[in-house]
Amino acid sequence: MKYLILSGGEPLIREDIFDIAKLFNRNGFITTLSTNGLLITQENINQIKENFSYVGISIDGDPQTHDRFRGMKGAFHRSLNAIRLVKDAGIKVGMRFTITSETYRSIPFIFELAEKERIPKIYFSHLVYPGRGRNLSQTEKEQYKKIVRQIIDKAFEYVEKEIPVDVVTGNNEADAVLFYQMFKDRYPEKADLLYENLKIWGGNQAGVRIADIDYRGNVKPDTYFQYKLGNIHEKDFYSIWNSNGILSKLRQHPRPVKGRCGECKFIEICNGNSRSRAYAVYGDYFAEEPECYI
């Protein structure tokens, strides 16, 4: 089973997005919607429910932080209202939070909001910066490691206290390695089983189990790739998805990545991490991952 992420653009919710979702649902894909929520309304909520199994809505911190980050006064309350609308419609919903130097101080607020609003999932995304990348300093990497440790500690707390909030991190498979190391300290008798499950998952799945189709119909290995595989308005999806080139290399396991990633003992867990970040920093989709903090 492959996962299809339909990502918004301008405009965010369009009739052709629903048409694309219907097409892929009929062909056995799981379709999800990632959005800022501003255009989710009572008028289109039934279409969203009909076509998407999950909706992720971005909340980037407390109201002031979110509005500043999004550049729109009142954006926080509109996005939160969208979460409530989706939740009340019986659609699985979650908050999406991007970890940046501007937003990370709001992480405690995000946990409190999830508990207060009974939002069943929080997705913490590391920043992926195609087109405007920079390599983090070691000090910054250590700060990010502390942030992820804080998130994982909270996830352990939710499990142990049976609080029904799923905590997920994404776009930095180094998190899986840190999770394994922390899990091993906490539950050493189960660590080998976790490691085997992480190997089965296989790390970064761009171009493998994940595809992205943007609002113009461009197919990419994931949301953040600049590289476009083709366009579904010009060629059918299966022809695009079964082509060779970069997809063949992305589907090697472990991937043929360079530098320290190629020598890392955890590559079977992370699979080389984000190829989009590697390209943004080094101009090479198979260079080492610039934000690995392990």
Any overview of this molecule?
- This protein is an alpha/beta fold.
- The chain is built from 13 helices and 9 strands.
- The chain has helices at 15-26, 45-51, 63-70, 75-88, 107-117, 138-161, 174-186, 191-201, 237-241, 246-250, 259-263, 267-270, 275-282, and strands at 3-7, 30-35, 54-58, 92-99, 121-126, 166-170, 210-213, 218-220, 230-231.
- Helix 6 packs across helix 7 and helix 7 packs antiparallel against helix 8 (191-201).
- The relative contact order is 0.12.
- Residues 9-13 have low confidence and may be disordered.
* Total helical elements: 13
Mean of all residue-level pLDDT scores: 89
Radius of gyration: 19 Å
Largest sheet: 9 strands, mixed
Fraction of helical residues? 40-55%
Series of secondary-structure elements, N-terminal to C-terminal: EHEHEHHEHEHEHHEEEHHHHH
Principal-axis shape: globular
Which structural class do the helices and strands define? alpha/beta
What is the straight-line distance between the termini?
Answer: 31 Å
Beta-strand proportion = 5-15%
Stretches with pLDDT under 50, minimum 5 residues: 9-13
Describe the strand arrangement of the main beta sheet, using strand numbers: 6-5-4-3-2-1-7-8-9
How many beta strands in the DSSP annotation? 9
Structural key phrases:
single chain; 9-stranded mixed sheet; 15% strand; alpha/beta; 13 helices; 294 residues
